[in-house]
């Protein structure tokens, strides 16, 4: 039997304010981990729209993507459960509009948000949910920015 391989499409927000980056601490099958605000692309949305939605759901901050930082492929294998998933990540940088919305609940599994410096993020690599957290940060710090139009979403997706 042939099984078609399908990576999980995800989106991630790289959010900087005053030299610090907004991360989430989330409960995973492998314990508490740090990650960019990120999640799966939902049906009927563009990657940039999905990124804005995930950032709001996970951090209570309104986020407006302004550029694509990169497209990444990674494989996750849980040491605890044996789960094996390949992720195709679209990482965007952009701007947050003001502070977190007061009283807005964070997504299930998100324990808290925190602002960290690049050095703090590098020093906590053993707590990263994915090696892509650090890779996206380093690409952002290296100035990688691509126009949003690089990722085209046909009207059939949102119809």
UniProtKB/TrEMBL annotation:
Listed Pfam families: NUDIX
Transmembrane segments: none
One MF annotation (Gene Ontology) recorded for this entry: thiamine diphosphate phosphatase activity
EC number(s) from the headed UniProt entry: 3.6.1.-
Domain of life: Bacteria
CDD domains named among the record's database cross-references: NUDIX_Hydrolase
Domain Nudix hydrolase: from-to ranges: 4-138
Cofactor (UniProt): Mg(2+)
Cytoplasm keyword on record: no
Record keywords, A-Z: Hydrolase, Magnesium
Subunit relationships: Monomer.
Family membership noted in the UniProt record: Belongs to the Nudix hydrolase family. NudJ subfamily.
Protein name: Phosphatase NudJ
Species classification: Bacteria, Pseudomonadati, Pseudomonadota, Betaproteobacteria, Burkholderiales
């Amino acid at each position: 039997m042939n099984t078609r391989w399908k990576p999980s499409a995800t989106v991630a927000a790289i959010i900087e304010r005053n030299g610090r980056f907004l991360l989430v601490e989330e409960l995973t099958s492998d314990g508490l981990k740090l990650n960019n605000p990120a999640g799966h692309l939902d049906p009927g949305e563009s990657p940039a729209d999905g990124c804005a939605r995930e950032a709001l759901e996970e951090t209570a901050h309104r986020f407006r993507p302004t550029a694509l930082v990169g497209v990444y492929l990674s494989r996750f294998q849980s040491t605890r459960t044996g789960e094996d998933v390949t992720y195709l990540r679209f990482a965007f940088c952009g701007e947050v509009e003001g502070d977190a919305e007061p009283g807005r609940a964070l997504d299930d599994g998100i324990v808290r948000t925190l602002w960290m410096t690049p050095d703090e993020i590098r020093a906590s690599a053993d707590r990263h949910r994915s090696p892509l957290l650090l890779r996206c940060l380093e690409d952002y710090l290296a100035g990688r920015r691509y126009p949003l139009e690089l990722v085209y979403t046909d009207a059939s997706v949102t119809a």
